[in-house]
Amino acid sequence: MLFSRHKNHLPTPEEALKGRPEPGFPVPDRHTVLGNPLTGPYPEGLVVADFGLGCFWGAERKFWQAPGVWTTLVGYQGGHTENPTYEEVCSGLTAHTEAVRVVFDPSVTSYSALLKLFWESHDPTQGFRQGNDVGTQYRSAIYTHSPEQQSEAETSRAAYQSVLTGSGYGQITTEILPAGPFYPAEAYHQQYLDKNPAGYCGIGGTGVKLSDPSTGSCPTGIRPIDE
Fold first, then answer.
1. Is 55 annotated in the active site?
2. Catalytic residue, candidates 55, 90, 201, 218
3. Which of 77, 80, 192, 213 is the right S-S partner for 99, CB 3.0 to 4.6 Å?
4. DSSP-derived secondary structure letter, 30
5. Rounded Cα distance, 32 and 22, in Å
């Protein structure tokens, strides 16, 4: 990953790079693992969810391996620059974070299950970094597509904060906002760890678990790590 002196400051719209009105590169048609189209419109009945949890290479693999996920793609979200490139995002001058778009079948899985996977797959207390990856593009984020998703994400954040605090962690820094434009990343980033199985992952959780949303095993929505 590229380094920059703009690691700890989100630029304002006025400070951000201007970008371009159209994408500067093509996006592959289909997912290399799941075989389904990467970009929409998606079949009726499927639901879109967007997450940022550090380097999107390893993050995407976490989600494409999950039951009920129809397709995933990586991209840039939460910033100001139109149709940015990877190099621009890594400069720290676009305000985007690396994100994964997850399209899932709600008859097979749930948004709660994806939130559980999200929280458990990274450390959401690190601010503008994730492990050794430092910069605003590695910040933790949930971008929601409905009031219901917004409420559920905020509730899950509060539940996870409770158990993290009990385990000695600090405050969650995850931003939870209505989804803005999602700009797909370059072709070589899509399903990167399928094409490069020994490639860099960079994703690791705290070891602190949420309860299984299908059982609701604790009133707070959390459960001890040893369960």
1. yes
2. 55
3. 77
4. B
5. 25
Contact criterion met (CB below 8 Å) for 90 and 135:
yes
Give the DSSP per-residue string, 77-131: ESSS-BS--HHHHHTT-S--EEEEEEEE-TTT--HHHHHHHHHHTS-TTSSSEET
Contact 29, 71 (CB under 8 A): no
- Whole-angstrom distance, CA of residue 227 vs CA of residue 216: 13
Asked if residue 122 lies in contact with residue 184, where contact means CB atoms within 8 angstroms, the answer is: no
- State how far Cα 38 lies from the chain centre: 16
10 Å Cβ neighbour count for 25? 12
| pLDDT tens for each residue of 8-35 | 889 999 999 999 999 999 999 999 999 9
Pairing type for strands 175-178 and 97-104 reads unpaired
The residue behind tokens 């999107």 is 56
**Tens digits of residue pLDDT in 60-70:** 999 999 999 99
Cα separation of 82 and 182, whole Å? Answer: 10
Query: Residue 212: what pLDDT?
Result: 59
Q: Please state the three-class secondary structure of 139-171 as a single string.
A: CEEEEECCHHHHHHHHHHHHHHHHHHHHCCCCC
User: Does residue 41 have a cis bond before it (omega within 30 degrees)?
Assistant: yes
